[in-house]
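Minutes, project huddle
Topic: does the predicted pose make sense with zinc ion bound?
PN asked that the exact inputs be recorded in the minutes so nobody has to dig through chat later. Recorded below.
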Amino acid sequence: MLKAIKVRLYPTAQQEIALAKSFGCARWYWNYALNACIQHYEQTGKSLKLGVYKAYLPQLKVENLWLKEDCYSAVLQCVAINLNKAYTNFFEGRSKFPRFKSKHHKQSIQYPQNVKVVGDCLDIPKIGVVKAVFHRSIEGKIKTVTISKTPTDKYFASIVCQTEGSDNQASGDKTLGIDLGLKDFAIVHDGEQVTKHSNPKHLKRHQKNLARKQKKFARKVKGSNSRQKYKKLVAKVHERVSNSRQDFLHKLSRKLVDESQVIVVENLHVKGMVRNRKLAKSICDVGWGMFVNFLDYKLKAKDGQLLEIGRFFPSSKTCSCCGHIVDKLTLDVRGWDCPSCRTHHDRDGNAALNIRNEGIRILSDGGGNPVTADGGCVRPPTRTRARGNGQRSQKPTPYP
Ligand SMILES: [Zn+2]
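Predicted holo structure (tokens), as shared on screen:
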């Protein structure tokens, strides 16, 4: 199993310069190769193969001596491989078209080999022995190391190691249904009881501070020192928001995964929801997608399973008691009585229980076709997939 560990690095002033040079070389080669790919496509209508732009390297190093002197050669090989990956992800509809890299954004380089852990330090080729803070021990064989610099001038190394087997911690075996929302972040039903986890609204807590600093930043003269300073301050607020969001999502997903073996969630169409401009900010801030990803990889590590059920499944409108589906249920209705069996439902708990039941039904069905209880007609397109093996269902458009 692959495991990634992120450590903070504290390079010396000299090492910072060496890192800046390496970042520069990797960025320059990425942009050069991407440009070559785009031009080749414009001229021939075909994409350039990885081997072709990899083969540019020896000549480029002759023409630009700094490329050879300032950067570890395997880092440049990695750039080529990553560009190829970016193209594949684009063509298979998983991501947008690769972009040119700017020196004003986050910087990173990747080492496929030869980075060693030496005591409390990381020995990095061409950079030297850099002081690091490890929060956990590095186990297994180091595969790749990615060194990055954030817009707030912090340095990190993400170390990917190959470890033997999965970490089978003794833990719960519940099946949880989770309804994700804005008011409550997650409503969890374990078959017996409902637990609500409120939405911490990370951005809202920092909104005033952010707006003030962004306004000041926007008023500074371009290229001035104080503009640089305010850019850092704005980046710092963003960093804090993102850190507290990740902290919350990691802790909650860890807790839920420790209790369970199977977790069922709704497949949310986040992209479509963000088009609702009134809610866009809250939806982006809440971090459902990141949460589902965290659940997924944490479950995989303990051989559990994440199940996403189709987004057209009427989780709120179905009675979890008798299966009756009501026609209408507006968002302001927090509780309702089933017209068929007279059970009173709390809106959210009912939805989470329905999601859980649907997940169990699909699992016992062997992931087969969804069939209603009376054997009658099937619901609108219920797409079900286990996470990880599928691809995002967005159709790629050739070149922007
Ligand atoms: Zn009912």
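Observations noted during the meeting:
- Residues 368-400 have pLDDT under 50 and may be disordered.
- The longest strand covers residues 2-10.
No decisions taken; revisit at the next huddle.
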